[in-house]
Design brief:
The protein is mostly helical. The chain has three domains: 82 residues, Arc Repressor Mutant, subunit A (Orthogonal Bundle), CATH 1.10.10; 83 residues, Orthogonal Bundle (Arc Repressor Mutant, subunit A); 132 residues, Four Helix Bundle (Hemerythrin (Met), subunit A). Helices cover 62% and strands 6% of the residues. The protein has 16 helices and six strands. The strands form two sheets. A three-stranded antiparallel beta sheet has the order 1-3-2. Strands 4-6-5 form a three-stranded antiparallel beta sheet. Helix 12 crosses helix 13. It is elongated.
Length: 344
């Protein structure tokens, strides 16, 4: 089997890295090797400077390195993908160890194609791994799911499932070249490294002709609202309740403003959510339950006004954030259902 990528391809890619990119990859990989966790963004910024780090990541792209947003008590971090790992692995130790693992997968498959999983103990014994090599192997398979079919990892015990491509390995020949090819064959320089942009990119790629808000006629407004909707989803996932309130209210204002303009042929005299929601309810754009929810959303959003917040010391909890999220989506469903009838 001819591999389109080989070790020379990897060396060539390394030569094309800027010094900032090479340093960032090395710091990130070494941090992961030492700690078993990805480097916090603030740590990278302290070591290399924020502007230099951002510039380096923009140049590398999301196929090499990516940001993961903060979640709960976990800080935002920078991660390497498998191509990023191979670029950071200048000694070639990770690549050689990965090829040994692939060889074990191949031999296991040829011996018994019913085997689905290998325990860490089986891997260590079969490959005669030293303790440091076992630690590195565990890091390699934890980078992403490119090399295995999944697995489990505990403080002492670990296992991996054989990958779906295991039946390709008997014909692969040079397994280091196979690993490099598998890592880089799906490389997409357009994938954003930054979390919010990457999620939006993935959604568009999955449904390139499908808008999340197809009933919004104003192209620029629709683009803004779709980005806000994506950010709202992330805020909700990460339990950022105040952000949920702000984003949900702003999205609904924009949606109602555009939809009412389509119905009346005139721009609304106010873009205040209470005015828009009342008009939408009167015209049947929002069903009665959705209209009530829109008013609840307006009430909750008012809680975060800075002056009111200082006066009443309001605390935004999961209840308010969850209601705002559900209220917005109920209103969006109502608009999508009723707007075609009202604009005939």
């Amino acid at each position: 089997m001819v591999m389109p990528f080989d070790i020379e391809h990897l060396h060539c890619r390394r030569k094309n890295l800027t010094s900032q990119q090479a340093s960032l990859l090395a710091y990130t990989w070494n941090h992961f090797l030492q700690h078993g966790t990805w480097i916090p963004t603030r740590t990278a910024h302290r070591l290399l400077g924020k502007s230099s780090t951002v510039e380096a990541i923009d140049g590398l792209g999301g196929s090499i390195m990516l940001e993961r947003s903060a979640s709960g008590n976990d800080p935002s971090t920078y991660h390497l993908t498998s191509p990023g790992m191979l670029l950071a692995d200048e000694s070639g130790e990770a690549l050689r160890l990965l090829a040994r693992l692939l060889r074990l997968f191949r031999d296991t498959f040829l011996d018994d194609d019913n085997v689905q999983t290998l325990s860490g103990t089986e891997i260590v014994q079969s490959l005669h791994l030293a303790s440091s090599e076992e630690s590195l192997m565990r890091r390699i398979v934890a980078v992403d799911h490119l090399w295995t079919g999944g697995g489990s990892s505990g403080p002492h015990e670990w296992s991996v499932s054989l990958p779906s491509f295991v039946d390709d390995l008997p014909e692969a020949g040079d397994l280091e070249a196979f690993a490099i090819t598998r890592a880089f064959e799906a490389y997409d320089p357009a994938i954003p490294a930054w979390d919010i942009e990457r999620r939006q990119y993935s959604r568009v790629q999955a449904s390139p002709n499908q808008s999340a808000l197809p009933f919004i006629k104003h192209d620029e407004l629709r683009s803004v609202l779709e980005r806000d909707l994506e950010e709202l989803t992330i805020a909700h996932e990460h339990r950022c309740w105040k952000s949920c309130l702000i984003l949900a209210g702003g999205i609904l204002e924009g949606v109602l403003f555009d939809a009412l303009h389509q119905i009346t042929g005139e721009e609304m005299s106010s873009d205040d959510l209470s005015v828009l929601a009342a008009e939408a309810g009167e015209r049947g754009l929002l069903d009665t339950p959705a209209s009530h929810l829109s008013q609840a959303l307006r009430t909750y959003r008012n809680l975060i006004h800075p002056r009111r917040h200082l006066k009443e010391l309001t605390v935004i909890t999961a209840d308010e954030g969850a209601v705002a999220y559900r209220a917005l989506h109920a209103c969006l469903r109502s608009v999508a259902q009723n707007l075609p009838r009202l604009t005939r």
